[in-house]
Design goal:
Length: 240
């Protein structure tokens, strides 16, 4: 009797260790937001970006470590998303993967481990800081803009996608140029020098179409900013 009672008591708290917050998958391409809901339930919203800008988007209520998607196309085998605490944060998986795949583009999937982001690198905080940066930059408050963005570039690279990191670094570099610190500008863009030296046709061949278009924009911005900062880019003669 005691064992049965203990089992019954533990079921409603199966996900009690899942902490509300913003979680990020490896490479920064997935964002999982978890918030308290009614009773002992949790509410989640998940976005994942895959290759060629294909995405997944799911949301629902977590009870006992699972969330059944009420709008599943297959009522006999509905998409059920599972949540389990692991050593880095929360491991998200699926039951009836074929049904769950309907929530994703062809080149995306949401099954992954998501780590709890520190408050100063949480996606929502980074977005607000980048908006603050832009507002200050547009007002030509370049020293203030640099102070806003520098911590993001310095501390949050592991929580951002490669694309976001590239744009943050370029924004910081051009701001460093505006305040007269060309050496800092060049140092900030050093990790993107190889991309800047890569011919456009090679970039186009290295990525799916949508990703290639974005990488080309980044390469062109990096070339322009490096030139402003006194380091004109010499194309790689090997075409790499």
């Amino acid at each position: 009797m005691t064992l049965a009672a203990g089992m019954l008591f533990s079921l409603p708290n199966a996900h009690a260790q899942i902490k509300p917050g913003e979680y990020v998958s490896g490479g920064g391409f997935g964002v999982l937001r978890i918030a308290p809901d009614k009773g002992d339930a949790l509410r989640f919203h998940l976005n994942m970006r895959g290759a060629n800008f294909h995405t997944c988007e799911l949301s629902g209520v977590i009870r006992n470590g699972e969330s059944r998607m009420e709008d599943s196309a297959d009522t006999k085998l509905p998409c059920i998303v599972t949540f389990k605490v692991d050593k880095t944060g929360v491991a998200v998986d699926s039951k009836h993967e074929r049904t769950c795949s309907t929530y994703c583009g062809a080149r995306a999937h949401f099954e992954a481990s998501y780590a709890l982001a520190p408050a100063h690198c949480a996606p929502s905080y980074v977005r607000r800081e980048r908006d603050r940066f832009k507002a200050a930059y547009d007002k030509k408050l370049f020293a203030e803009a640099r102070a806003i963005l520098a911590p993001i570039a310095g501390q949050c690279s592991n929580w951002l996608t490669e694309l976001d990191n590239a744009w943050v670094d370029n924004d910081l570099a051009i701001t460093q140029f505006r305040v007269g610190d060309n050496a800092a500008c060049r140092a900030t863009l050093k990790q993107w020098l190889e991309l800047a030296r890569t011919p456009d046709k090679t970039i186009e061949g290295n990525y799916p179409p949508s990703d290639a278009a974005e990488m080309l924009r980044i390469a062109q911005a990096t070339r322009a900013n490096l030139k402003l900062c006194g380091a004109p880019v010499i194309p790689d003669p090997r075409g790499k």
